[in-house]
Design brief:
about 250 residues; alpha+beta; L-fuculose-1-phosphate Aldolase; seven-stranded mixed sheet; 9 helices; 7 strands
């Protein structure tokens, strides 16, 4: 399938989402064919997600799968040949079907993210990167593989009005109004996880900032205009120069 198969808006979202998969892979936020990133198609109940069996670093715009609210694959050309990870659909549907303000969702099993998800206190306000998310993180208890439909409601309820959630003993879930915002949050959250683990491994006493400073940092972060994230994402696309726009096919 080529660009002519889709309208201009959908093709643009597909290209950006495929690029995001490749960026996530470059920054250690992939897990071979597991975990998933999705993007809502505006004005519809549909969202795009990865096909089961494609590595993040090999994702292309036309390979992404359009799914409906019941998990059905919308494009007839893909129905006979493509599968979607059941847990992936469940997790992403829990967000997209209930949060119209979230346009992109990233779920990852990074080593640092899994490690912090297993720590009782979650992410600590040890660094500027971490303070950006102070008071913004929800938690969801692990219930085994997220393939049961009844868990979807609990994911939705636990997320509430937050846009970031630590999936206990599992990984992280990040939402953004745009693909750029979601990646900006996921990148900085991942760095915060890594910094926390390094700081703890150093063995020295940890210095905690004043909570008021952490709260102000998070508040100022949320006040950043959304177009800032477009500048960030477009700059990051330069890291894919060696891919020769291969994700756009």
């Amino acid at each position: 399938m080529a660009a002519t198969h889709y309208n201009e808006e959908e093709w643009g979202i597909r290209c950006d989402l495929a690029a995001l998969y490749r960026l996530a892979d470059r920054f250690g936020m992939s897990d071979l064919i597991y975990t998933h990133i999705s993007a809502r198609l505006p004005g519809t109940e549909y969202f795009l997600i990865n096909p089961l069996g494609t590595l993040f670093g090999q994702m292309t715009a036309s390979a992404l799968v359009k799914v409906g609210p019941d998990g059905q694959i919308i494009d007839p050309q893909q129905r006979e040949t493509v599968r979607v990870n059941a847990a992936g659909f469940n997790i992403h549907a829990a967000v997209h079907l209930h949060r119209d303000d979230i346009g992109c969702v990233i779920h990852s099993h990074s080593v640092a993210g899994m490690a912090v998800s297993a720590q009782a206190d979650g992410l600590l306000p040890l660094t500027q990167h971490a303070m950006m998310f102070h008071g913004r993180i929800a938690f969801h208890e692990y219930e085994s593989f997220a393939t049961r439909q009844d868990e979807r409601g609990r994911i939705t309820a636990d997320l509430g009005a937050h846009d970031i959630m630590i999936l206990r003993n599992h990984g992280m879930l990040v939402g953004g109004r745009s693909i750029g915002e979601a990646f900006h949050s996921a990148y900085h959250l991942e760095r915060a996880f890594q910094a926390q683990l390094h700081a703890m491994a150093g063995g020295a006493a940890l210095h905690m900032p004043q909570i008021s400073v952490a709260a102000e940092t998070a508040q100022r972060m949320q006040a950043i205009p959304i177009d800032h994230y477009d500048f960030f994402f477009n700059a990051c696309l330069g890291l894919l120069a060696s891919d020769a726009d291969d994700w756009r096919r």
